[in-house]
Amino acid sequence: MTQRQRVDQDAAKTPTARTGRSPCALLKGGGCAPGMQTPQRSETADPATWEKIKDHPCYSAEAHHYFARMHVPVAPACNIQCNYCNRKFDCVNESRPGVVSKRWTPEEAADKVAAVAAQVPQLSVVGAAGPGDAVFDARKTLRTFELVRRKLPDLRLCVSTNGLALPEQVDALKALDVDHITVTINYTDPAVGAQIHPWIVYDRRQWGGEEAARILHERQMEGLERAVEAGMLVKVNSVMIPGINDGAELSEVNRRVRERGVFLHNVMPLISDPSHGTHFGLEGRRGPTQAELHAKREELGGDAARMMRHCRQCRADAIGMLGDDIRAQLDLDAPGGADAGDAGEQARIAHRARVEGARSARAGAAVLADAAIARAAPAGEERLVAVCSAGEGRINLHFGKATEFHVYKVGAGGIRFAGVRRADTHYCLGGYGDPDALTGILKALPDIDAVLCVKIGDGPRERLARNGIGAQEVRHDTFIETALAHWYGVSVPSGPDAVEAAPAETNPTETTAGAEKGGV
Ligand code: CLF
Ligand code: SF4
Fold it and tell me: What does the pLDDT read at residue 136?
């Protein structure tokens, strides 16, 4: 089959082909759909809040295309037990189980942050997320933040905690200008909490059962109220545990934290495997399916951007863009002297200036694409499309290199980000493909209508097709929203995307290069 035939075959699966309405007819009307919002406005209408999230890759789905964070594993101690955690590993309230980080002293951490800042212009946030509880182990966390704040005042500071020790530490964190805090809250009912957290240590003694769960819950609520009062942006993480808190309980958590002024709610899947040695892993408790997780996020957040959908459950020592840990490529012991520091600061300033231009170009392209699709789609239409992107809001990856897929809802509501799906490994092994990897990818994409990528070989394309998933190649660096519009069958007029990515008269999904069978 030629590439042209493949494109024709794919086009036959697009929604406008199904409805029989031509792209020209669908474009009539022009302009923006009522209520269409640019990526940043959809996350907050408040300019002061936007200032705080515009370069935080976790608090803004849009910012995570451009900015990186660095975790400092300085806090090994913890004051509670979670049934999804094996204390030999990192705190899984903010990371995947089964990984372990080397501990750093605050001084080592500050030196390594300086070394990374000199090498990674995208770096904007330094976070403390374990390996234990960064707020319980406050002395080390605060000392680290103090040193980083002194050396690199332009970086944001971020912390994650189970909340038990939070009420007493809010003032100290605020004094260091920590603006972002995450509290993991999995329940409101102590009977549910006792199934998740068997014990806590509080007020110099150990508590168990519902009494422990009641204390933990009260302290979490008090801590987040104080943090909100102090003007911090509070995010709540909740681990979705099938059979324990996945029904009304998580909805109640959502309701209570929202009424207390929490900015963002992140419902994360339980990751459970006997090899992790956790209570839940050993008892065989499963994590939620993609469909269950998606349904819960829809129930709690709908299209609201303040439901986090792009968390990668990263490690307590992760460095880089979310989903692309570059620790191994960096020299963490590079001297961070004055010259390197100055050059690094200049590079960060230049990156931020470049991002301002790039994000406004993308916002323009997104407005055009969103409006065209919203006008074209029949009422109630909703498709899920996965795109291969390594950042910058563009499609810039071959299918075979992708270990994660950005998923968008496309239809009558225009274009909405719906989350990130992770696969264990990528398909391409350099010249040939790994069928097992493809099985894992298919497991991550059970409800997806199509995949858009820079290139895909015949082998994976055919296997996707057998599973009801279309595949379409897109010109490298096309804005995601522009490519989605073309996949949908509507051509977006010449816009900012055309300036940077593709000539206006060219459909960016019509590539001509062939792909080797089984290649990428
Ligand atoms: Fe780290 Fe957490 Fe701050 Fe982000 S992570 S302390 S808020 S800088 Fe981000 Fe990682 Fe998800 Fe956490 S992707 S696990 S939400
Ligand atoms: Fe483990 Fe973190 Fe829970 Fe402590 S708070 S038990 S480190 S998951």
Answer: 95
